[in-house]
Write a structure and sequence with these properties.
- α5 links the parallel β6 and β7.
- The two termini are about 25 Å apart.
- The chain has one domain: 3-Layer(aba) Sandwich (Rossmann fold).
- The protein is globular, with a radius of gyration of 20 Å.
- The strands form three sheets. Strands 3-2-1-4-6-7-11 form a seven-stranded parallel beta sheet, with helices on both faces.
- By secondary structure, the protein is α/β, with parallel strands linked by helices.
- The relative contact order is 0.14.
- Helices cover about 50% and strands about 15% of the residues.
- This is Ketoreductase domain-containing protein.
- It comes from Streptomyces aurantiacus.
- Belongs to the short-chain dehydrogenases/reductases (SDR) family.
């Protein structure tokens, strides 16, 4: 991680990052710490938080605080926000980053997948924003709220429909909060990243023909040009916070997709339909063994990678995965996504 070339307007400010123990949240925490912020990372897994705090300390020399918190629990989020402000002597920056990724054809899902995505991604963003805003308004430096959306919230992505729905809601929340805080000292920045090499494929949940879903997702999200280096993405996001930007769309592909959907939405929807034909179809609805990733169930990425869902990995699946996901696998090891033992949920 290269040193910051100039003094930052964030130096000395107090920050809270949800979903901060790994991946993009971990990199955002490190970037803020490097700029002189007093950082608290919040996540559900205490072990991941300890490893994440050690990771930041090793790379920046700064000690960050940690809080175990499930962003779906409004009371828990409010408690963490209060504790963070009390411990740090204020609260100036809050980044709502926590989320889940479910990859499967909609025919292999039930309404529970949508409920889970909305509760974690959108509900988590709502809980974080509503708890943080009163504290951010008291910031002497002017509070900064950042919501992490996605290109999947700008247009529906096949086999990522619950995720896209929840991220679209986050985008609307960010725009609305920006409008309603325009006459205050709080700025709201909504970020829509495209594909990033964060190693999140090991934490995502896969349904349908899960091994094949894992193959295309891990390959595409790790392919250079199509995807973005996660550390570079974190730097861009922190710069947007420094400048109090309203909206940031990362990667040329994401910007092009967002513009195209705004100009010719029907054409983009038809193209998405064509793309969906090349993705693994939903398996037959016949009963399948528990944990095989068949219809109605999901399997975490680490299990899909390590064992294969169909009993044995097909040749083409493994070739595709190895071709495109090498950089993503490296990112998983680098950014606290891959740990010994059974994988934990996002």
């Amino acid at each position: 991680m290269a040193p910051t070339p100039r003094p930052s307007t964030l130096d000395g400010l107090c920050a809270l990052v949800t979903g901060g123990s790994r991946g993009l949240g971990l990199l955002l925490s490190a970037r803020l710490a490097r700029r002189g912020c007093r950082v608290t990372m919040a996540a559900r897994d205490a072990g991941e938080l300890r490893r994440g705090a050690d990771w930041v300390k090793e790379r920046t020399g700064s000690t960050v605080a940690t809080e175990v918190c499930d962003v779906r629990d409004r009371d828990a989020v409010e408690a963490v926000v209060r504790q963070t402000e009390s411990r740090q002597g204020g609260l100036d920056i809050v980044i709502a980053n926590a989320g889940v990724i479910q990859v499967a054809p909609v025919a292999s899902l039930d309404s529970g997948a949508f409920d889970d995505a909305m509760a974690t991604i959108f509900g988590g963003a709502v809980n974080t924003a509503m708890a943080a805003l009163p504290h951010l308004r008291r910031s002497g430096a002017g509070g900064r709220l950042c919501l992490i959306g996605s290109v999947g919230g700008l247009l529906a992505v096949p086999h990522l429909l619950p995720y896209s729905c929840a991220k679209a809601a986050v985008g609307t929340l960010g725009e609305g909060l920006r409008a309603e805080t325009a006459d205050t000292n709080v700025s709201v920045t909504t970020v829509h990243p495209g594909l990033m090499r964060t190693g999140s494929h090991l934490q995502a949940e896969f349904g349908g023909q899960a091994a094949k879903e894992f193959a295309w997702f891990s390959a595409l999200s790790g392919t250079p040009v199509v995807s973005m280096d996660a550390d570079r993405a974190a730097e861009r996001i922190v710069r947007a916070l420094e400048r109090r930007r309203t909206r940031l769309v990362l990667t040329p592909a994401a910007r092009a997709a967002g513009v195209a959907h705004g100009v010719v939405p029907t054409v983009v929807t038809r193209i998405s339909g064509l793309a969906a034909r090349f993705l693994p179809p939903s398996p037959s609805p016949s009963p399948s063994p528990a944990g095989d990733g068949g219809a109605g169930g999901t399997t975490e990425g680490g299990m899909a990678q390590g064992h294969g869902i169909d009993g044995a990995r097909s040749t083409w699946t493994e070739k595709v995965r190895r071709l495109g996901s090498r950089l993503n696998d490296r990112a998983a090891r680098r950014y606290n996504q891959a740990v010994p033992g059974p994988p934990t949920s996002a």
